[in-house]
Amino acid sequence: MLFDTFLSNPxxxxxxxxxxxxxxxxxxxxxxxAAVKLGDSTPKLQGRLTLxxxxxxxxxxxxxxxxxxxxxxxxxxxxxxxxxxxxxDSGLIAFAGPASNIVMAVVVAVVARILPIQSILILTVxxxxxxxxxxxxxxxxxxxxxxxxxxxxxxxxxxYLVHKWEETRRYxxxxxxxxxxTGAFSRIVRPVVDTALxxxxx
Length: 202
Known about the structure:
By secondary structure, the chain is an all-alpha fold. It contains eleven helices and no strands.
């Protein structure tokens, strides 16, 4: 848990917390930007077109993140009826969040490999930042409601399958809780993240 990290190594705790806040802020701002570009001004009217963490952090989600190791940001609201292609565009808006985290992880990793960085502290910050962004991306790509992956799948499925897929929405939160309690979440996400880290930061 992040709180334990603060107690054992305050510097590492600050680095991890800053990385998480940055990753969540960019993730949610990307949802907002995509929604506005696709025709809905709701996120702009709600002040979500910003990287200011105060606009994107959920108080309860942040507290749970620090003390329980799992949390969430404030979901970006948008009106699908303002979109030209509501189902497809909703999927694109959902994909924008995890895609932004993947882009950030790749860019920072590439820059770190190009620059002659000798500082252990900076390299540690880079490793935490890349890893946290990858975890956030992979986690949100899981096709389970309320995660982004569920909406992405809904956006790409043929129309005759969408209704059946949407019927599984009601079970999403229960599946997510079971994955977290049993540790299955870690067994699914960690191998993907570890493989990506080996490729980006050998």
